Amino acid sequence: MAVTAWEVEGDIDYAKMIKQFGTQPMTESLAGRLKKPLPNFIRRGALFSHRDLDKWLAAAESGKKITILTGRGPSNKMHIGHLLLYELAKYFQDAYGCRVYIPVSDDEKFFVKEGLSVEDVEKVAHDNIIDILAMGFDPKNTLVFMDFKYTKIYRHAAEVAKHMTYSMAKATFGLKPEQNVGWSFYPAMQSAHVMFPQFMEGAHNVLVPIGIDQDPFLRLTRDLTDRFKFIKPSTVYPIFLPSLSGSKMSSSAKDSDTTVIWLADDEKAVSQKIRKYAFSGGRASIEEHRKMGGNPDIDVSFQYLKYFFEDDDKKLKGMEESYKSGSLLTGELKEYLIAKINSYLKGHAKRRQDVERNLDKYMLED
Ligand code: TRP
Asked: Model pTM?
């Protein structure tokens, strides 16, 4: 397992990650405080860790100002593995009625990805923004910006950079001598993103739903907030949805076309990929499966239903039982999932069109 701020590889051990990053494990009493209704994946235990979520909730519960911030690094198209994070941000917006900030780090991906021009990252960013907003963020309460297009962010990055030494950035990210200096400056930019709601609205509690691989940026930011008399941002981490092969879904993986379902995939691509590549917890033959039953815990199709696509708890439980008992076959489970994904993606494509016509309602630009 290798998890750094710039790549996540291999099998993921969540308990180990909590230890490695020094975050707090999610507890039942804390999860129980979250306003209902909860999205499927929260109800089913896929929020595994946090920092100071209790403080953010306490602020929310006592009527203080609260906001949400989460970002996007536009290196490639988006896939279904990205849905959990933005669904999480949207849940907080819906449940707590608070503003959501979404900075998009085109500069970061320009610095760290070989062969991407400024125009390339801007194009990917534009497309990603439409995907994210199509998940249903409230246009009256959502602010999105790209670092190249909302250049006022630079002033805040500079304010942060003045308090961030090279060795702090190096200790956090292990910067290498041959890397361009963009890599060493960028942590100041991402810290400015995380503090942006407080730069804009004054000190208050900000919650950052984020992949745990991004935690080093947050740790560094939390060490600097005192300088600005800001409150340390809270964080909350969802699990990673597995790829079709069962490891972490990664758009930059060389085999991504057989391991990832893109949000832009058509019906045929989805059914082919699920049928052919979705790792199955079923048995080698139908006879054996009927006799011994399958294992839903390692079955990727079942995980997709569990953490995102099946809303009905009873139905999910029923499928889990019948898969275990062998009465539900892998092929049947897969066809059920294919229909679910395709109907979701059809709605998504429609919502993209609506968002695209109204992009200026969400965007901060110079
Ligand atoms: N660096 C993040 C990524 O690659 C994207 C990002 C930019 C971000 N600014 C952020 C995430 C602020 C959380 C908060 O995915």
From this structure: 0.95
Same domain for 147 and 84, yes or no, is: yes
Per-residue pLDDT tens over the stretch 208-265: 999 999 999 999 999 999 999 999 999 999 999 999 998 777 777 778 889 999 999 9
- Helix (H) or strand (E) holding 145, with range, is strand 142-146
Residue of minimum CA distance from atom 12 in ligand 1: 71
Residue 221 and residue 273 share a domain? no
Looking at the domain assignment, is residue 200 inside a domain? yes
The CB of 235 under 6 Å from ligand 1? The reply is no
Q: Which domain holds residue 182?
A: 2-240
210 alpha carbon – ligand 1 mean position (Å): 8
Same domain, 34 and 115: yes
Ligand 1 in contact with 98 (CB < 6 A)? no
Q: How many separate domains does the chain show?
A: 2
Quick check: helix, strand or coil at residue 198?
helix
pLDDT tens profile 49-101: 999 999 999 999 999 999 999 999 999 999 999 999 999 999 999 999 999 99
Closest residue by CA, ligand 1 atom 1 = 73
- Do 188 and 330 lie in one domain? The reply is no
Determine if ligand 1 sits within 6 Å of the CB of residue 220.
no
How far apart CA 311 and CA 91 sit, in angstroms, is: 15
- Token pair, residue 358, equals 């109204």
Sign of the torsion angle spanned by Cα atoms 89, 240, 265, 320 = negative
The Cα-based distances of 67 to 9, 108, 171, 252 in angstroms read: 31, 24, 29, 31
Q: Is 72's C-beta closer than 6 angstroms to any atom of ligand 1?
A: yes
Q: Establish whether residue 103 lines the binding site of ligand 1, counting it when its CB lies within 6 angstroms of any ligand atom.
A: yes
Shared-domain flag, residues 222 and 262: no
Q: Closest residue (by CA) to atom 15 of ligand 1?
A: 73
Tell me, yes or no, whether 177 and 261 share the same domain. Answer: no
